[in-house]
Amino acid sequence: MTVHLRTIPLVLVATGAALTLTACGGGSDNDAAAPSSVGMSPATTNPGSGSPKGGGSSSGSHTGTAATKPGGKEATGDSYAYKHPCTAEQLTVSAKSLGSSPNQYVISVTNHGKAACGLSSYYPRVDLGSKNSADRSHNIHPLVPGGLGGAPAVPVHAGRTVYAVLDTDPQGAKGSNGGFDEVNVLADKSFPNADTHNFPLAYGAVVVQHPKLGLYRSSVGDAVASMRTADTNDS
User: Fold this and answer.
1) Tens digits of per-residue pLDDT, 77-123?
2) Domain 90-233 class, CATH top level
3) Where is the signal peptide (predicted)?
4) Which of 11, 64, 109, 172 has the CB geometry, 3.0–4.6 Å to 46, for a possible disulfide?
5) What are the C-alpha distances in Å from 35 to residues 30, 127, 208?
């Protein structure tokens, strides 16, 4: 009996040790898995387009891992923007008269998303009309720079703004607004008409038959210079 009493505790001790080792091993695996699962969360929750309304998860994986994985900086580059078209929801559009010239309007398009995106047109679609008119067929479309080639795409980095300048009286005609009192702006020609923004013309603004609109540029000065080269009807 003495032998049996000594043997039983040894077996229990051995079994307990094995269980302890097994439990420790399981805890180690969980600790190793935890960082991986947390790391994947941004890739599946961040919107690919940077839109606060949500988007695809494939491009979101670039956005969520930009700071931790090689190649993640693609989400901030031009090549990424070319492959990821901007959506109207991730852009803020404004149009304000330029202080030095009341007939010139700076159209600003800002990407408030978390990743770069691309506009599919070189310039916004712009026309001038009357806010009280139901017939838009007589609205005036500005001239734009001609000789454009290649695939149209304008990269807009996250948090950045591109500009286009409209001049309603580029020749200094000194007339009247001709009944036109509104500037209508669609940031990208591929967007539906419902995404058009309407802005009032400044009081006393002059509108001629052939206003000018420049290409999107990263600075207002470059946008003004581009506007001055406009010579082609915007169809």
Assistant:
1) 888 998 999 999 999 999 998 877 778 999 999 999 999 999 999 99
2) mainly beta
3) 1-25
4) 64
5) 9, 53, 63
d(CA 75, CA 199): 32
Backbone angles phi, psi at 187, to 5 degrees: -60, -35
Handedness of CA 130, 131, 133, 137 (dihedral sign): positive
Biggest alpha carbon distance in the chain?
120
- Mean pLDDT rounded to a whole number for the chain: 73
| Strand, helix or coil for residue 133 | coil
pLDDT of 136 reads 75
Nearest to 97 by CA among 148, 169, 27: 169
Phi (first) and psi of residue 105, to 5 degrees = -120, 130
- Nearest Cα to Cα of residue 231 among 210, 217, 207: 210
**CB-count exposure of residue 7 (10 Å: 0-12, 13-18, 19+):** exposed
Q: What per-residue string of b and e applies to 18-52 under the rule 16 or more CB within 10 Å gives b? A: eeeeeeeeeeeeeeeeeeeeeeeebbeebbbbbbe
Q: Quick one: which of 156, 164, 178 has its CA closest to 220? A: 164
Query: Phi, psi (5° rounding) for residue 218?
Result: -85, -10
- For the sheet with 125-129, list strands across it: 125-129, 182-186, 197-200
Sequence ranges of the chain with CATH classification 2.60.40: 90-233
